[in-house]
Each structure stands twice: as C-alpha cells, then as structure tokens.
Amino acid sequence: SPEVMQHAKDVPGGPSIDPKRVITGINLGVDPIPSPDSVVCNASPNKVATLTTPGAVLQAQSPLVEIGEESSVNSPDEINTSHHKSGGKHRKNAYKQTQVQSRYSPKTSSEELKEICRLSQSSLIPLFEKELTASDADLRNGRLVLPKRCAEAYFPKISGQQGNFIAVQDTKGNDWELYYRYWSNTNGKMYVLEGLKDYIILMQWKAGDRVTFYKREADGKLVMGFKKYQAAKSDQKSST
DNA sequence: CGTTTGCATGGCTGG
DNA sequence: CAGCCATGCAAACGT
C-alpha cells in the first residue's frame, strides 16, 4: 500500500528508534503524549482499574481498563458533541489516513500556529484501553472490537445500523478516518472500529499489545495510542 | 480463488 | 442466568 509506504518513511521509528519518541512532521517537536504509561494504572489483566468517574456508569471487565476522569469527562455524553453525518455510503475503501502537514500551509498565520501548538500540547484525557486479542491484531480483519460500555460511553452515537465515520488521530499526529459501527448480536450489539488495517501494519499490532483511546482536552478530538506488550523495549524489531 | 464483511455461536464472567 | 466478546464461518466481492 502506497499509503503505508508513505508512512514508513515518515516514521523513522522502524528499525531501532523508539516509536514513542518519533517526531513526525506534525509534532512540532512536542510530544503530545502526556505519559501513556502512567495511565495504565497497574490494573491486573483480569481485574479492572475501577474508575472514579462519577457520572459514567462504567466498570470495565476483562482485560480492558477504563480510566476515570476527574472533571473533564464526567459525563461520557460530553464527547458526543461533534456529530459526523457521513451517511456512511462508501465505506469500502473510504478509510484513509491523512497526514496533517500543517507545515505546508503557505499562509499559516501565527494564530493558526498557536492553535496547532495548543492542540499538540493539549493534554490527553484517557478514556479507556483495550488489550488486543488475536482477532484484533489480525490484519485480515483490520478491525477492533470495542468494549460495549466504552464504545457507547465515549464514541459518537451511531445513527442507524450503518455506523459512522469518525476522525481519530493517533499519538503521532496522523489523522485516520475510521468507521465505527456495531453488529447486531443475539444479545445486543457488538461495537467495532473498522479501517484500522494500515494502522495495524504501521504499529505492528500483536495480541497482547494495547490500544488506548483518549480525548484531547483542547478540542475533544479522539486520539488513539498504542503500547507494546508489557514494557519490553528490547524487543521492538520484527521477528522474521 | 483469495479477501472482506457481517453475523452467529460458544466460552466465560459477573450478578 | 444474562450479557459480553473472541472467534469461526459463509455469503458477497474483487481479481
């Protein structure tokens, strides 16, 4: 995929550079991640870091961790402010990832720059985290099953069985247009985030790794982060 | 004929 | 016992 290739070069972190320290063109030299690791709480895989969230009726179960917020995201509904009315027509290859190349803006006013910096430095409010399963990491699927409670609480409401396109930015500043939908199941719905194939390749998802979703404080935009399985920095290269 | 998409099933956990 | 979710699978597609 040309897109992926394009990324490969944008992301120097391939061979031996720590992904977390990679600075992409958009980063402006500022690491947007406050401290992902500290967010994990030290919840055991099976236990859940029960949150302190007041309004949120959340309680994770299984290998996922929901992070409660103190005041910024009391009500999960708050983040449902921006409604994407994409209609959901062409879902097929509509998934795309676009680099936010602000540096290309010929007429970037100082105001805009300030805004960009503001966003870059804005703190990320952890929403929830999920440990990847084999299915999630499977390239053929290119989709991530989202914990129901988290999906309903933090993702934009889905209009109809179709689902919605949602803009998500990764912690490197890349923008992704993902498709958020659900499958009707015998017992309710199963929420899924599709269109992740390229991101999966880029980050080299593996079962056991974890994905965290944040809400950027500045503009409320969804941001996704990725962490390799339990702090193992000496095993970052491709196996075979 | 290899993929992708959507769904149904079954294991498992919490209530 | 109810519901969640990981996974298997068949229909639908694309090459």
Automatic annotation (TrEMBL):
Does Nucleus appear among the keywords?
A: yes
CC annotations in GO: nucleus
- Composition bias, Polar residues: 95-107
Name the residues that span the membrane: none
- Keywords on this record? DNA-binding, Nucleus, Transcription, Transcription regulation
Where is it localised? Nucleus
What is the protein's given name? B3 domain-containing protein Os07g0679700-like
**Source organism (scientific name):** Durio zibethinus
- Which portion of the complete protein is shown here? 78 to 317 of 317
